[in-house]
Write a structure and sequence with these properties.
By secondary structure, this protein is α/β, with parallel strands linked by helices. The protein has helices at residues 10-19, 33-44, 58-64, 75-86, 113-126, 139-145, 164-173, 188-216, 221-229, 236-239, 263-280, 287-301, 309-316; strands spanning 2-4, 26-29, 52-54, 67-70, 104-107, 130-133, 136-137, 148-153, 177-184, 322-323, 326-327. The protein contains 13 helices and 11 strands.
Length: 329
Protein backbone atom coordinates (compact mmCIF):
# COMPACT_ATOMS: atom_id res chain seq x y z
CA UNK A 1 0.00 0.00 0.00
CA UNK A 2 1.16 3.55 -0.57
CA UNK A 3 0.21 6.84 1.06
CA UNK A 4 1.33 10.44 0.54
CA UNK A 5 1.76 11.78 4.04
CA UNK A 6 0.95 15.36 4.85
CA UNK A 7 1.65 16.57 8.36
CA UNK A 8 -1.98 16.35 9.44
CA UNK A 9 -2.35 12.88 7.89
CA UNK A 10 0.47 11.33 9.91
CA UNK A 11 -1.95 9.59 12.34
CA UNK A 12 -3.92 8.13 9.44
CA UNK A 13 -0.79 6.48 8.10
CA UNK A 14 0.07 5.23 11.60
CA UNK A 15 -3.35 3.59 11.92
CA UNK A 16 -3.06 2.10 8.47
CA UNK A 17 0.34 0.54 9.20
CA UNK A 18 -0.96 -0.84 12.50
CA UNK A 19 -3.94 -2.54 10.87
CA UNK A 20 -2.71 -3.91 7.55
CA UNK A 21 -1.25 -7.43 7.60
CA UNK A 22 2.34 -7.75 8.86
CA UNK A 23 3.31 -9.21 5.48
CA UNK A 24 2.22 -6.01 3.68
CA UNK A 25 4.55 -3.06 3.16
CA UNK A 26 3.40 0.53 3.60
CA UNK A 27 5.19 2.60 0.95
CA UNK A 28 5.23 6.33 1.69
CA UNK A 29 6.15 9.48 -0.21
CA UNK A 30 5.85 13.17 0.55
CA UNK A 31 7.63 16.33 -0.56
CA UNK A 32 8.65 16.85 3.09
CA UNK A 33 11.51 14.38 3.48
CA UNK A 34 11.86 15.12 7.20
CA UNK A 35 8.30 13.98 7.88
CA UNK A 36 8.84 10.83 5.83
CA UNK A 37 12.05 9.94 7.68
CA UNK A 38 10.39 10.59 11.03
CA UNK A 39 7.51 8.32 10.04
CA UNK A 40 9.85 5.56 8.87
CA UNK A 41 11.93 5.74 12.05
CA UNK A 42 9.00 5.95 14.46
CA UNK A 43 6.43 3.71 12.78
CA UNK A 44 8.49 1.50 10.50
CA UNK A 45 10.82 0.34 13.24
CA UNK A 46 7.95 -0.64 15.50
CA UNK A 47 6.01 -2.44 12.76
CA UNK A 48 6.26 -6.17 12.30
CA UNK A 49 7.14 -7.75 8.98
CA UNK A 50 8.35 -5.54 6.16
CA UNK A 51 7.21 -2.33 7.90
CA UNK A 52 7.62 0.93 5.99
CA UNK A 53 9.42 1.72 2.75
CA UNK A 54 10.15 5.21 1.39
CA UNK A 55 9.56 5.94 -2.32
CA UNK A 56 11.26 8.70 -4.30
CA UNK A 57 8.19 9.68 -6.33
CA UNK A 58 4.43 9.15 -6.65
CA UNK A 59 5.13 7.01 -9.71
CA UNK A 60 7.31 4.65 -7.66
CA UNK A 61 4.55 4.33 -5.05
CA UNK A 62 2.06 3.36 -7.76
CA UNK A 63 4.45 0.92 -9.43
CA UNK A 64 5.03 -0.95 -6.17
CA UNK A 65 1.50 -0.82 -4.71
CA UNK A 66 -1.90 -2.35 -5.27
CA UNK A 67 -3.65 0.33 -3.19
CA UNK A 68 -2.57 3.98 -3.35
CA UNK A 69 -4.04 6.60 -0.98
CA UNK A 70 -3.43 10.26 -1.77
CA UNK A 71 -4.11 13.23 0.52
CA UNK A 72 -3.15 16.57 -1.00
CA UNK A 73 -4.09 20.23 -0.39
CA UNK A 74 -5.15 21.62 -3.79
CA UNK A 75 -6.63 20.41 -7.10
CA UNK A 76 -3.40 21.40 -8.87
CA UNK A 77 -1.42 19.13 -6.53
CA UNK A 78 -3.68 16.15 -7.20
CA UNK A 79 -3.48 16.71 -10.96
CA UNK A 80 0.32 16.99 -10.79
CA UNK A 81 0.66 13.80 -8.76
CA UNK A 82 -1.55 11.78 -11.10
CA UNK A 83 0.24 13.27 -14.08
CA UNK A 84 3.44 11.84 -12.62
CA UNK A 85 1.76 8.49 -11.97
CA UNK A 86 0.07 8.04 -15.35
CA UNK A 87 2.81 9.33 -17.70
CA UNK A 88 4.43 7.40 -19.19
CA UNK A 89 1.62 4.84 -19.24
CA UNK A 90 1.38 2.80 -16.05
CA UNK A 91 0.70 -0.84 -16.95
CA UNK A 92 -2.27 -2.50 -15.20
CA UNK A 93 -1.55 -5.00 -12.42
CA UNK A 94 -3.48 -7.74 -14.20
CA UNK A 95 -4.25 -8.41 -17.87
CA UNK A 96 -7.99 -8.48 -17.11
CA UNK A 97 -9.54 -5.20 -15.93
CA UNK A 98 -11.32 -6.54 -12.81
CA UNK A 99 -12.60 -4.72 -9.74
CA UNK A 100 -11.17 -7.28 -7.33
CA UNK A 101 -7.60 -7.24 -8.65
CA UNK A 102 -7.02 -3.86 -10.29
CA UNK A 103 -4.74 -1.27 -8.79
CA UNK A 104 -6.91 0.93 -6.54
CA UNK A 105 -6.45 4.70 -6.22
CA UNK A 106 -8.20 6.30 -3.24
CA UNK A 107 -7.99 10.09 -3.23
CA UNK A 108 -8.92 11.54 0.17
CA UNK A 109 -8.07 15.12 -0.84
CA UNK A 110 -10.67 17.87 -0.65
CA UNK A 111 -10.82 19.29 -4.18
CA UNK A 112 -13.64 20.26 -6.55
CA UNK A 113 -15.82 17.45 -8.00
CA UNK A 114 -15.09 18.49 -11.59
CA UNK A 115 -11.31 18.10 -11.20
CA UNK A 116 -11.75 14.79 -9.39
CA UNK A 117 -14.00 13.41 -12.13
CA UNK A 118 -11.44 14.44 -14.77
CA UNK A 119 -8.73 12.56 -12.87
CA UNK A 120 -10.99 9.51 -12.46
CA UNK A 121 -11.63 9.45 -16.21
CA UNK A 122 -7.90 9.72 -16.92
CA UNK A 123 -7.11 6.82 -14.59
CA UNK A 124 -9.85 4.59 -15.97
CA UNK A 125 -9.13 5.34 -19.65
CA UNK A 126 -5.45 4.50 -19.08
CA UNK A 127 -6.41 1.12 -17.52
CA UNK A 128 -3.89 1.89 -14.73
CA UNK A 129 -6.52 1.04 -12.13
CA UNK A 130 -9.72 2.15 -10.42
CA UNK A 131 -10.12 5.62 -8.90
CA UNK A 132 -12.47 6.71 -6.11
CA UNK A 133 -12.86 10.01 -4.27
CA UNK A 134 -13.08 9.64 -0.50
CA UNK A 135 -12.69 12.96 1.35
CA UNK A 136 -12.96 12.80 5.12
CA UNK A 137 -14.37 14.65 8.10
CA UNK A 138 -13.33 14.49 11.73
CA UNK A 139 -10.18 16.58 11.96
CA UNK A 140 -6.91 15.73 13.69
CA UNK A 141 -8.72 14.23 16.69
CA UNK A 142 -10.63 11.85 14.41
CA UNK A 143 -7.47 10.96 12.49
CA UNK A 144 -5.65 10.03 15.69
CA UNK A 145 -8.54 8.01 17.08
CA UNK A 146 -9.41 6.43 13.71
CA UNK A 147 -12.95 7.79 13.99
CA UNK A 148 -13.04 9.71 10.70
CA UNK A 149 -16.07 9.73 8.42
CA UNK A 150 -15.26 9.09 4.75
CA UNK A 151 -17.58 10.28 1.99
CA UNK A 152 -17.14 7.86 -0.91
CA UNK A 153 -17.72 8.63 -4.55
CA UNK A 154 -17.45 5.69 -6.96
CA UNK A 155 -19.56 3.62 -9.35
CA UNK A 156 -21.73 0.87 -7.88
CA UNK A 157 -22.86 -2.00 -10.07
CA UNK A 158 -26.41 -2.15 -8.79
CA UNK A 159 -26.91 1.52 -7.99
CA UNK A 160 -27.41 1.21 -4.23
CA UNK A 161 -23.81 1.33 -2.98
CA UNK A 162 -23.37 -2.41 -2.53
CA UNK A 163 -21.25 -2.96 -5.63
CA UNK A 164 -17.92 -4.76 -5.66
CA UNK A 165 -15.83 -1.59 -5.79
CA UNK A 166 -17.60 -0.13 -2.73
CA UNK A 167 -17.07 -3.44 -0.98
CA UNK A 168 -13.36 -3.40 -1.73
CA UNK A 169 -12.78 0.23 -0.70
CA UNK A 170 -14.80 0.26 2.53
CA UNK A 171 -12.61 -2.08 4.68
CA UNK A 172 -9.52 -0.08 3.72
CA UNK A 173 -11.06 3.22 4.79
CA UNK A 174 -12.38 1.63 7.99
CA UNK A 175 -8.77 1.12 9.07
CA UNK A 176 -8.57 4.90 9.39
CA UNK A 177 -12.16 5.78 10.29
CA UNK A 178 -15.38 4.51 11.80
CA UNK A 179 -17.87 5.36 9.06
CA UNK A 180 -17.89 5.16 5.25
CA UNK A 181 -20.88 6.68 3.46
CA UNK A 182 -21.26 5.91 -0.24
CA UNK A 183 -22.57 9.19 -1.63
CA UNK A 184 -22.97 8.10 -5.25
CA UNK A 185 -20.95 8.08 -8.45
CA UNK A 186 -17.49 9.59 -9.02
CA UNK A 187 -17.25 13.10 -7.56
CA UNK A 188 -20.22 12.67 -5.22
CA UNK A 189 -18.01 12.07 -2.18
CA UNK A 190 -16.53 15.51 -2.78
CA UNK A 191 -19.97 17.01 -3.38
CA UNK A 192 -20.96 15.79 0.08
CA UNK A 193 -17.74 17.08 1.63
CA UNK A 194 -18.15 20.56 0.16
CA UNK A 195 -21.78 20.81 1.31
CA UNK A 196 -20.75 19.72 4.80
CA UNK A 197 -17.81 22.11 4.95
CA UNK A 198 -19.91 25.01 3.74
CA UNK A 199 -22.24 24.45 6.69
CA UNK A 200 -19.22 24.11 8.99
CA UNK A 201 -17.70 27.36 7.73
CA UNK A 202 -20.92 29.26 8.48
CA UNK A 203 -21.61 27.60 11.84
CA UNK A 204 -18.05 28.29 12.99
CA UNK A 205 -18.46 32.03 12.36
CA UNK A 206 -21.94 32.04 13.90
CA UNK A 207 -20.69 30.23 17.01
CA UNK A 208 -17.82 32.69 17.39
CA UNK A 209 -20.19 35.64 16.99
CA UNK A 210 -22.75 34.20 19.41
CA UNK A 211 -20.14 33.46 22.09
CA UNK A 212 -18.60 36.91 21.75
CA UNK A 213 -22.02 38.61 21.62
CA UNK A 214 -23.33 36.80 24.70
CA UNK A 215 -20.26 37.66 26.74
CA UNK A 216 -20.50 41.29 25.68
CA UNK A 217 -24.04 41.25 27.09
CA UNK A 218 -22.61 40.02 30.37
CA UNK A 219 -23.17 36.27 30.14
CA UNK A 220 -20.59 33.84 31.53
CA UNK A 221 -19.07 31.81 28.71
CA UNK A 222 -19.67 28.48 30.48
CA UNK A 223 -23.36 29.20 31.03
CA UNK A 224 -23.80 30.42 27.47
CA UNK A 225 -22.12 27.34 26.02
CA UNK A 226 -24.26 25.07 28.22
CA UNK A 227 -27.38 26.80 26.95
CA UNK A 228 -26.37 26.62 23.26
CA UNK A 229 -25.24 23.01 23.46
CA UNK A 230 -28.57 21.87 24.93
CA UNK A 231 -30.79 24.10 22.79
CA UNK A 232 -31.64 24.72 19.16
CA UNK A 233 -28.30 26.41 18.47
CA UNK A 234 -26.36 23.21 19.18
CA UNK A 235 -23.68 22.36 16.61
CA UNK A 236 -20.22 20.77 16.35
CA UNK A 237 -18.54 24.19 16.35
CA UNK A 238 -19.96 24.87 19.80
CA UNK A 239 -20.07 21.45 21.46
CA UNK A 240 -16.78 19.93 20.24
CA UNK A 241 -14.70 22.82 18.88
CA UNK A 242 -15.90 25.75 20.98
CA UNK A 243 -13.65 28.77 20.36
CA UNK A 244 -13.70 29.93 24.00
CA UNK A 245 -11.02 28.47 26.24
CA UNK A 246 -12.33 26.22 28.99
CA UNK A 247 -15.44 24.98 27.17
CA UNK A 248 -14.36 22.05 24.95
CA UNK A 249 -11.50 19.91 26.35
CA UNK A 250 -8.95 19.15 23.64
CA UNK A 251 -10.19 21.90 21.31
CA UNK A 252 -7.57 24.13 19.61
CA UNK A 253 -8.80 27.07 21.73
CA UNK A 254 -7.21 25.31 24.70
CA UNK A 255 -3.80 25.55 23.03
CA UNK A 256 -3.85 29.07 21.61
CA UNK A 257 -5.67 27.84 18.48
CA UNK A 258 -2.71 25.67 17.46
CA UNK A 259 -3.37 22.46 15.52
CA UNK A 260 -6.81 21.52 14.28
CA UNK A 261 -8.17 22.57 10.88
CA UNK A 262 -6.21 25.52 9.54
CA UNK A 263 -8.01 28.73 8.66
CA UNK A 264 -6.20 28.64 5.29
CA UNK A 265 -7.77 25.26 4.52
CA UNK A 266 -11.23 26.54 5.35
CA UNK A 267 -10.71 29.54 3.07
CA UNK A 268 -9.56 27.12 0.35
CA UNK A 269 -12.60 24.90 0.84
CA UNK A 270 -14.94 27.88 0.61
CA UNK A 271 -13.32 28.78 -2.68
CA UNK A 272 -14.05 25.27 -3.93
CA UNK A 273 -17.62 25.58 -2.66
CA UNK A 274 -18.20 28.82 -4.59
CA UNK A 275 -16.68 27.33 -7.74
CA UNK A 276 -18.93 24.27 -7.52
CA UNK A 277 -21.96 26.44 -6.74
CA UNK A 278 -21.33 28.54 -9.83
CA UNK A 279 -20.97 25.43 -12.00
CA UNK A 280 -24.13 23.85 -10.59
CA UNK A 281 -26.25 27.00 -10.46
CA UNK A 282 -26.76 26.80 -6.68
CA UNK A 283 -27.50 30.02 -4.78
CA UNK A 284 -25.31 30.48 -1.68
CA UNK A 285 -26.18 33.80 -0.07
CA UNK A 286 -23.57 33.68 2.73
CA UNK A 287 -20.61 32.18 0.86
CA UNK A 288 -18.92 35.39 -0.24
CA UNK A 289 -19.36 37.02 3.17
CA UNK A 290 -17.88 33.99 4.90
CA UNK A 291 -15.01 33.83 2.40
CA UNK A 292 -14.23 37.48 3.12
CA UNK A 293 -14.13 36.78 6.87
CA UNK A 294 -11.76 33.84 6.47
CA UNK A 295 -9.50 35.83 4.14
CA UNK A 296 -9.15 38.55 6.77
CA UNK A 297 -8.66 36.05 9.58
CA UNK A 298 -6.05 34.17 7.56
CA UNK A 299 -4.11 37.39 7.08
CA UNK A 300 -4.18 38.11 10.81
CA UNK A 301 -3.87 34.57 12.20
CA UNK A 302 -2.22 32.44 9.51
CA UNK A 303 -1.50 28.88 10.60
CA UNK A 304 -4.11 28.82 13.37
CA UNK A 305 -7.22 26.64 13.66
CA UNK A 306 -10.23 28.13 11.88
CA UNK A 307 -12.00 28.67 15.22
CA UNK A 308 -9.56 31.57 15.73
CA UNK A 309 -12.31 33.60 14.05
CA UNK A 310 -13.50 34.13 17.63
CA UNK A 311 -10.24 35.82 18.66
CA UNK A 312 -10.38 38.01 15.55
CA UNK A 313 -13.96 39.07 16.32
CA UNK A 314 -13.16 39.69 19.96
CA UNK A 315 -10.31 42.00 19.04
CA UNK A 316 -12.56 43.92 16.62
CA UNK A 317 -15.33 44.36 19.19
CA UNK A 318 -15.72 47.57 21.18
CA UNK A 319 -16.01 47.97 24.93
CA UNK A 320 -19.15 50.05 25.41
CA UNK A 321 -19.44 49.50 29.13
CA UNK A 322 -22.15 46.88 28.71
CA UNK A 323 -21.73 44.08 31.23
CA UNK A 324 -23.45 41.78 33.72
CA UNK A 325 -26.54 41.92 31.53
CA UNK A 326 -27.22 45.62 32.14
CA UNK A 327 -25.82 48.81 30.69
CA UNK A 328 -23.48 50.54 33.10
CA UNK A 329 -23.87 54.31 33.31
Amino acid sequence: MGEFILRSRYPMAQNLRAKIPDSDTLIVHDHNSEVVEKFKNEVGTAAAGTGVEVADSPREVAEKSNVIITVLPEPSHVKSVFGNILHPRLPPLHPTFSVEHDRLFIDASTIDPTSSTEIANAVHSSTAGRFVDAPMSGGVVGARAATLTFMLGCPSHNGNGDGRLVGRVTPILEMMGKRVIHMGESGMGLAGKLANNYLLAISNIATAEAMNFGQKLGLESEKLAELINTSSGACWSSSVNNPVKGISPGAPAEEGFEGGFGVSLMRKDLGLVMKAAKESGASLELAEQAFDVYEKVEEAEKGKDFSVVYKWLEERSQDTGYGNGVRRR
